[in-house]
Amino acid sequence: MKSSKVAIVISDIIEKVQLIVGIFLAVSFGILLFSSIVDNQKISTILIIFALFAIGVLLIVCSRKRKILIENFKIYEPRLSVDPTGSIENLALGLGTSQDVVKKNLEKMIKRGYFSDVYIDIENNRVVFNAVSEHIIITCKSCGGINKVAKGIVVECDYCGSPLS
Predict the structure, then answer these.
(1) What does the domain layout of the chain look like in residue ranges?
(2) E strands, 49-156, where?
């Protein structure tokens, strides 16, 4: 549990840094882009300025996505902690959203370390906590990617999304 709290704090810091840097780049280079167009600067100069402006906007978008994921975690975690089944269907129904959205969010949360010792049991459509399970290495038949998976669990390939078991 301690490592998941650290992961959330670090992610929250990254979100704030992305937002601040993104706003700085977008505003600074947005103004510069406008003045460059008005002053009829070379197209190469305008393209470089536009690229830096676009990076700023991208950082703002990434910051927003990270913030939403953290907010979703703060909703998902207490709901899952009181549901002994760990049902993704129940969680999705309770949130009024699709199971696919909930599953994708849970996968991102697990990948970023928001949940520790947790995996998604795709076969039974549930989240399994305190997952002390044996892991095996599986080579994906579709793309050849090497994946570390919990034994007996059906998951998707980290590289191409094909089912692995």
Answers:
(1) 2-132, 133-165
(2) 119-121, 126-128, 135-139, 146-150, 155-156
Encoding tokens for residue 91?
């969680």
CB-neighbour burial class of residue 141 (10 A; exposed 0-12, middle 13-18, buried 19+): exposed
Helices 43-81 and 99-111: angle between axes, nearest 10 degrees: 100
Structure confidence at residue 2 (pLDDT):
55
Both tokens assigned to 165 = 């078991």
pLDDT digits (tens, 9 = 90+) for 35-79: 998 988 899 999 999 999 999 999 999 999 999 999 999 999 989
Residue-averaged pLDDT of the chain: 89
pLDDT digits over 129-160, tens only? Answer: 875 556 678 888 999 888 877 766 678 888 89
Taking the CA atoms of residue 50, residue 52, residue 54 and residue 56 in that order, the dihedral angle to the nearest 10 degrees is -140
Instruction: Indicate the residue type of 55.
Output: I
Element (H, E) at 143: none
